[in-house]
Amino acid sequence: MKISRLFLLGAFVALLIPPFRAWSATLDTTASGEQFVDFLAKGDFTGAAARYDKAMQAALPEPKLQEAWRSLEARVGPFMKRLHTRTVKAGGYDVALVTCEFEHAKLDVKVVLNSQDQVSGLFFLPATADADFSKPPPYAHTNSFRERDFTVGSGEWQLPGTLTLPTSKSPLPCPAVVLVHGSGPNDRDETVGASKPFRDLAWGLATKGVAVLRYEKRTKEYGTRFLAEKIKITPQEETIDDAVTAAKQLRQTEGIDPKRVFVLGHSLGAILAPRVGRAAPEIKGLIIMAGATRPLEDIILALRGELSAADQKDLSDLEMKVAEIKKLTLADTNSSKIVLMAPPAYWLDLRAHDPVAEAKSLKQPLLILQGGRDYQVTPAQFEDWKKGLEGSPRVTFKLYPELNHLFIAGKSQSTPQEYEKGGYVAEEVVSDIADWVLKTR
Question: Does residue 160 sit in helix, strand or coil?
Answer without folding.
Answer: strand
